[in-house]
Design brief:
Distance between the termini of chain A: 28 Å
Number of domains of chain A: 1
Structural class of chain A: mainly alpha
Strand content of chain B: 25-35%
CATH architecture of the largest domain in chain B: 3-Layer(aba) Sandwich
Shape of chain B: elongated
Radius of gyration of chain A: 20 Å
Oligomer: heterodimer
Distance between the termini of chain B: 43 Å
Helix content of chain B: 25-40%
Number of helices of chain B: 11
Number of strands of chain B: 14
Largest sheet of chain A: none
Largest interface: A-B, 24 and 32 residues
Structural class of chain B: alpha/beta
Largest sheet of chain B: 6 strands, mixed
CATH topology of the largest domain in chain B: Rossmann fold
Number of helices of chain A: 12
Order of helices and strands of chain B: EEEHEEEHHHEHEHEEHEHEEHHEH
CATH superfamily of the largest domain in chain B: P-loop containing nucleotide triphosphate hydrolases
Number of domains of chain B: 2
CATH class of the largest domain in chain B: Alpha Beta
Strand content of chain A: under 5%
Amino acid sequence: MKLFTITKIEIKKSFKPVLLLSLLMCLFVLMIVSIFDPELFEGIEEMMDLFPEAIKDMLGSALDLTTIGGFYTIEFLSMIWIWVGIYFILKAGQDIPATIDNKTIDLVLSKPLKRWEFVLGRYMRFVFSILLVILFIGITTFILFEIAPNLQDQEIDFSEFFWALTWAFIFVVSLTTTAFFFSVFLNRKKATGLAFGMMVLFFIVGTFYSYFEEDVQEIKRISLFFYYDPARILVSHSYENVLRDFLILSGYSVVMVIASIVIFNKRDIPV
Amino acid sequence: MEVIQVKNLVKYYKTKKKVVKAVDDISFNILEGERFGFLGPNGSGKTTTIRSILGLLRGVKGEISILGEKINPNKDTVYRNHIGYIPGELGLESELNAIQMCKYLSKLYDISFNWDEIKNIAERLKLDVSRPIQELSKGNRQKVGILTSLMGDFDILILDEPTSGLDPLIQSEFFEIIKERQEKASCTVFICSHLLSEVEKFCNRVAIIRNGKIVEISKISELKQKGLKSFQLEFTSNAGLMEFVQYLESQFLNATVKSQSVNRIEFLIPPEKKRNLLHDISEMQWAGEYIKDFNINNSSLEDIFMKYYEIDNPEEER
């Protein structure tokens, strides 16, 4: 299928930067694991209790710096939208407009290639790239958990980390899909700007909704951040509503991709 | 057989403020093996027509048939297998070189291509296939576009300003390559170009499009026959020339002076006026005395094109 050809070609083209991002994230994980010290962080945790609630909300719903799960959540997973998400939002927001601006789209679409194949092929490249980054992070995390001397007395449930990372993957994909959706009908600047705007809006609504008037607090449900809370698994050791959140984030991505295909299929390819 | 058949094609661009009639109810046919030129000034609707045929535009009304089969460019894609295409504004993957670009597109198009043939064309076009496209000049990038359009087999070759940025020697070589390819593969060529002299030499038939409407469509030879007549007169003195110019201006209001020097003048008049002018030249007293030499030609395609173009630019009319 041409869809997979496009995906393969696009992955190849962006392989180096994705690999670099993966390596940086692996180094970041290495740093997190290296500096983790439960005794040291006991003191810090007491200090953090004095922090305003808003800051604590931003770092995660459940704070626990004395376990590697809590520390990993605060330092890495709760911020994955910054560490990994921003790169993919930037790329996805520019994806289709770039092919229109540099005119390569004419050569591609003037041959027997259906537009849905073109859109889905390019989108799948992001899904696989994000998967690759998370895979690198996951493998590094598991290896380090096995060999790091400072973690030997920690009780680590690998399956919890597996599901938390899977959640992070689905979450980053949903953010990227938002940017990709805007890219099918807006220019680079507008698509990227709107995607970032949406992300910030989602973040504010999904994180600080408890500070809103009580009758508007339900607005939290429109935010993707509301459906992403790895601390629930890694700190609270609970899987309550995790499947629901997986499905909502995945469903959102599917709907946005279908909408992207429909919109792109109806638009002119400008000269 | 009609290889491309376009009937009542309409494409309007709607903006917030106005509706632009890019292509406004045009119809034409291109026959098998023909070299068909599509001429018009910028913004006349040439590229929109091509992009409508290729399914790059939406909201297109009218009927399009390719190789005898009616197609819906918004849904059908298989017909594009039969088409080789050079876009008017060529976009290439800048980090690749020409070889990699061809390989990339062959993968994407799922076609095989004869590498020796492509290499041979590259040599004839004096293209360095090993240099990354981002390091190439506009002309050399265009050559890469030519290479990619000639990959694989096709029945129709659509060329939108294919010689843009090429120097005259390479332009001539390009047309030779296309002719050879056409003879070998008996394909049909549909070309939009501003190089009217080349179109005149290369094409069998042309259509002239203006403001989204086809204003002329015929064989080049017929077009030239019914086109303007070009008179070149040489006078024995400037006084004779000035007297003739006065006469021309008073009697032939639609004459277009192409060039004028001290004792020479070249002008165009409609073909139906030719007889009157010849009569007057032979009858009038200054004719025998002042005119040293004269020559009558069919006007070139460029003259014919310019005549249509002048209607859009009345301030340029003489």
